[in-house]
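User: Structure please.
Assistant: Input sequence and predicted structure:
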Amino acid sequence: MKLRVLSTLLLFNFAVAALSLAQQNVPAPAKAFATAPEIGYDSVLNFLKLPPGVYLGEGISVARDSKGHVFVYTRGGDTSHLYEFDPNGSFAREIGKGLYGFQMAHAVRVDPQDNIWVVDEGNISIAPIRTAANLTTQRSTKWNLTAPFRASSAQEASN
């Protein structure tokens, strides 16, 4: 009985000593924390309004264009989805529904010309999506991320 109590106390002391040593090796906060400006924001509950029967899924990436439209690239079910919402959070449309290039969402970005760019892990590509009125197309050029700096196009593939 004494041996059990003694071994328990010894183990407890060892654990406390290990914790105190581990805490001594914690680095100081980076200097950037002290100089970084506070970024103000307002949290809005249920900002995105989806139509009945449409579910957001796993939100992977969010971007905003110059008009305030919000683009959400999600993984859901067997494919990825790119949803557009107006500045008030109301559902505008799904872009590229059933598009072959939307296999496993990774990122969405909007450039200064309001072109939408999507990165897909499933087919290892970066693809620009051009939007004009109600027409949405995916250009045939995609960049193969396994062979950087070489663009492959549908025309090269057919040659």
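The mean pLDDT is 75.
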